[in-house]
Amino acid sequence: MKKKMYKSKKNWVVASVVGLSFLGGNLVKAEDVPTNEATNEIVVIQQTADPTDNSQETVSPTPAETVNQEMTVSGDQTTPVQPVTTESDKEVVVNGVSDEVVETPLQTENETLAPVVQDNKMETVPVVTEVQAKDTATTSLAAVAASTTLPLTSANVMDGKIHIKYNHPLNPGEKIKFAVWSDVNKQDDLIWYNADANASLIVDLAKHRDYGIYHIHTYNQYQGLNALKITIPKPEILTEIIKQSTTSYDIMIRNVPNNISFVKVPVWSKLNNQDDLIWYTATKTDTTTYKVNVQLSKHQNNTGEYSAHIYGFDKYLNKLIGLSSSAGFSVATPQNATVTIVNYDQNNPTFEVIVSGTKDTKMISSVSVAVWSEDKDQDDLVWYKPTIANNQAKVTIDIKNHSNLSDNYLVHVYTNYTDGSKVGTNLGSYKIENNQPVINKIHANLTTSGIAIALESNTVATNAQIKYAVWSDANKQDDLKWYTADASGRVLANYENHKDFGLYNIHAYQLRDGKMIGLTTATITIPSPHVSATIQQKSPSTYQVSITNVPLYISEVLVPTWSKLNDQDDILWGKAIKDAVGNYTALIDLRDHQFDLGEYAVHVYGKSRIGKQTIGLTSQGFVVDAQSNIPKNTIQQSVNYIVLNHVPSKGVVDFVFSQKASDKAIRAVKLDVWSQENKSNLSTYNASSIINGNLSLSVNQINHRGVKGNYYVNALVTFADGTVENKALGNYILNASYDIPYYNQKDPRWGNKTYGYYTMGASGCVPTSLAMIFSSLSGKAVLPPQVADFLYYSTNDFNKSEIGTTTTGLLKAVSHFGYQSTNLITQTDLISALKAGFHVAGAIQYNKFVGNGSHEMVYKGYQNGNTYVYDPYTQRYCGWYPVANLWNERSTFTSDNLGVSAPFFKITNYI
Description:
- The structure is a single chain.
- This protein is mainly beta.
- The chain has eight helices and 59 strands.
- It has seven domains: 175 residues, Sandwich (Immunoglobulin-like); 94 residues, Sandwich (Immunoglobulin-like); 95 residues, Sandwich (Immunoglobulin-like); 87 residues, Immunoglobulin-like (Sandwich), CATH 2.60.40; 93 residues, Immunoglobulin-like (Sandwich), CATH 2.60.40; 102 residues, Immunoglobulin-like (Sandwich), CATH 2.60.40.3760; 155 residues, Cathepsin B, Chain A (Alpha-Beta Complex).
- The radius of gyration is 59 Å and the shape is flat.
- The protein starts with 16 loop residues before the first helix and ends with a strand.
């Protein structure tokens, strides 16, 4: 099949036979077609797709021509038709720019460009572009074209898209196609587009990916209709390079349009074939400005010429494009810093070395200064490493750090720069005269923590490394310890590092260049303890121990105290209190020792940091006698009273009151007596019977639930005339032991006695426990059968409905025998009662004391979380047990908890 093409005046569009096949069989024949017109030979580029397809079509990137001659196809012959006459293509300028923007290739033969990752999701930025189209019309359409005010085809650019419109009314069945391509790379981006039903089309620039001249040709299925050319200018930016310092430059990129989503700037020096090439990502500083900071250190600190190109990622084209090739910048080779010695004087032991740079010199990275005296071949060589600030370094040289002798001192300076260079400077030799006497003296004193050691020296510099060797004379240096001093030459030799008293040796050394140089020695004595203690009675029941001359190495003083009665059963280790001057005091309270009478032993121990041990310091003692007030005492000059029969071990004391004058007769006397601070064991004694002018009252410890203590006695005397006098009669120790007698429910005397269906031995834990408590409170023997008889014959709560005694029966028995009961609801209540010395009855279950069911027992006393248990069933189980365990094992049986919150009761002989 032969092929022909249509040719316009300027541009060629090539259409293959396949491309023209959309004409179908209804070809349009023009009138007056010259029969003798020659057939033009054409070069055909095969299209990649049929242009009748409704999708875009792209031809291969081969030069093409546009023909303006219509032809018909019949069989394998082609017949020219009337040519479509068009005017010359008019170039349309976008945004008022008439010249075509040609991107200057940025890559040189020495430039290596890094790949760029494109982001297809970049937000499009509107670019409004208006274009004017070239008028094109066939002879048959001339009249129509002449009558319209719009170009046949119009195009404008907006938001990265070309908006194309065929403005002529469409004939029925007429379909419009547009061929679009850029001038760049010979139609490699040519795409055929199908217009929509309104003969419109929107072309995304990303499909063509170029700026510059674009060609838009319009076709219907019969002929070419129009050829249009527009220019889309490339973004134009401005660049400026600002020198910030000798090693830092800022590249400013301005007028960046908003369709550029990011900016990349490759920078390199012209040395060594781009081996220092770095692609910088510019920082956006405002809506149209970007900045890159270039540090020469990242470019090997190269000097000379630097190149900088500007690239931007264009969201419209969806690719990185070259924006500019800046003029670059030039870096001059900086000079070295200056190295000098200042403040030098032959008679001054110090001078300074200064390495000084400026913003125009090389940047200093580090400085090392080597100094030594000429004598003894660098044995006192010291390297100084000053800090760098503002491109300067300064260090003070002190001959104390060296031999500290009159000598020539040599100074070498080594300067390292940030560009990697290193320069050595020999500053020469400097004569220094030192005529001062050498002083090296150790100062040592004892503190509460150890030996405080300091060095006084005019041969050692402030920051010299000083070490001390410290050891005692005893046992051949077995406690030798090395200590490193601080910058001022001070250190603390802790007592804990040593273990002996007596003479201690201290040697001082200077560590210089790995060698220990001896400076001086000293000694100090740590004396063994010689403590004094005195005891003074502060009240009838308290004594104060005063302890003096306690050594500083004693961290804590302990005072164990006990009475010599019952073999230290009351020993108590008290902790002494230290005052501001280093003396200690400890308080001894007789209540902690059951108010025992007789001799008391007091020992004093100290926790010594030396040897980390507790050592005995001294011992003392005192005697507690039965106390009595002055036999005759006076109340309001009208009444005398005397104290009789004060026997602490029996818990009794008597008071006898007598009136002195008949006109001030006594009517009655009331005594309030207690030993507990909260008056919880307060009892009142009243007397109104006057015999031979006297009135007597007897105080008994048993009336205060048997608590041992220092009892307060207060008298309220009422006279016949109605006046009343209140008088404190002093303190009296009552320390009778009202031990609980032990009874066993299986005792042969009553164990086989039957109550109902059960024996006393099997069921009598409650009456036996109560008998122990009642006997203790009364001081008289109350036997278990006495309590059991009451429970069985006077109540229905013992061995009636079930074995044993209910809570109701227990409370009835307490009341019947004249005592008071208080339910202990919490573990805290139980502990408080035991601490106060009360008798407690309580039921437990399922533990050591009872395998099945519940069991009543007696509890008395409190020590370190434990209480003493009196088990009425198994005597060998009596002893001290944790209160917490007993509480956790309390009975939960209903019969043990009738009407109460817990099966534990405090039982007293008063409310």
